[in-house]
Amino acid sequence: MEPRRHSPDPDLLQAEKCGRTVQVSDFIRYHYNGTLLDGTLFDSSHTRMRTYDTYIGIGWLIAGMDQGLLGMCVGEKRIITLPPFLGYGENGDGSDIPGQASLVFDVVLLDLHNPKDSILVENQVIPEPCIRKSQEGDFMRYHYNGTLLDGTFFDSSYSRNRTYDTYVGKGYVIAGMDQGLLGVCIGERRRITIPPHLAYGEEGTGTKIPGSAVLVFDIQVIDIHNPADTVQITSSFKPESCSTLSKKGDFIKCHYNASLMDGTHIGSTHSYGRTYDVVLGAGQVVPGMEMGLKDMCVGEKRTLVIPPHLGYGERGVEGEVPGSAVLVFDVEMVGLEEGLPDGYMFIWNSDVSPDLFTEMDKNKDGKVEPSEFSDYIVRQVNDGKGRLAPGFDAHKIIENMFSNQDRNSDGQITADEFKLKADESPAHDEL
Ligand SMILES: [Ca+2]
Ligand SMILES: [Ca+2]
């Protein structure tokens, strides 16, 4: 007599329904109530509050269970009835099960794997085009939902509202995840099913992941970068005349839209209602932006992909940019004012007057006061005879120029102080 199964579907139909059924040499975790034919309960995994975990089909179980559990799907319930010779035979188990007892097991299968399993990748949704696939050593930000094989939830990055961030292929995450995160596109979704020997093993972890549990992660990749990445610059539009290119010291005006790699909007000059004004090379913006705005002409449009080490780093910007995020800037340069040569804050456009000091000393008292100095420089700039470095506060520059000339810092420049400065400076210095 075979053990009778009161399961509606034959194994084959079950496999079609659930994808995988219990086979000989699999490892399974299940709950059961064991009763005699009269309904007397002799054993229950439920009352012990832990699953029964075992290999199947290789003699670890009584013969009737070794046969009766074959072909089950995870989540399936079965009632398996055994005759005594497939259970504990003529003598019973010596305590609760009498001799010649038929046994009834009410079983639900929770987990199933084989020690030979590797990870399983399925349910992939791959973006078109796939602009980048993760490689060993990359840094990835991703979201995940984690469940056990029977659907029991154990963890989710979505519920914390922040991505899980890690290096890939370097042993920072469980082995199965390290494998499953390789070759994944930015924006891709995939399900990674990980057997316990590539996850938390026989011990499990915490209160939610039992020993020998198979884990199922549904992940969504937000971004990928490598610490060796530089800024990626793609020019999407160049005006026909594009000869004057931005360089260090230039004062440029731009519009931009900023987003994360998954399209999340970060900010836009259009919504701020003003341009983004930058003196290149002055340390006013993150290094990636400095690099991305160089050699660009007015009217040009670019997309800049800035990795975090050239952007806002591991910390990000509170409430705006997540830590370690890759940023995407769609930039249009709308204005460029050429800067002064490196190190200069003021230059003469034409020849310097031979009698500067006298011209500056308007009230002819032999000293140049700050107001006389400032008035004079502003007039030269307005008349087109001199130029201040663009993008900075003109009053601050002029104040600095004055202090440089006022050697003894008494608030006025004498003819001697002025001469000293003029002697040691080549033409076209600050004054
Ligand atoms: Ca004076
Ligand atoms: Ca002085």
UniProtKB/TrEMBL annotation:
State where the protein is found: Endoplasmic reticulum
Q: What EC number(s) does the entry state?
A: 5.2.1.8
Statement: the UniProt record of this protein carries the keyword Magnesium = no
Substrates-to-products reaction catalysed: [protein]-peptidylproline (omega=180) = [protein]-peptidylproline (omega=0)
Q: Which UniProt keywords apply?
A: Calcium, Endoplasmic reticulum, Glycoprotein, Isomerase, Metal-binding, Repeat, Rotamase, Signal
- Domain named EF-hand: which ranges? 348-383, 393-428
State a GO cellular component annotated for this protein: endoplasmic reticulum
Residues covered by the PPIase FKBP-type domain: 25-113, 137-225, 249-337
Gene Ontology molecular function: calcium ion binding; peptidyl-prolyl cis-trans isomerase activity
| Function (record text) | PPIases accelerate the folding of proteins during protein synthesis.
- Name of this chain's protein: peptidylprolyl isomerase
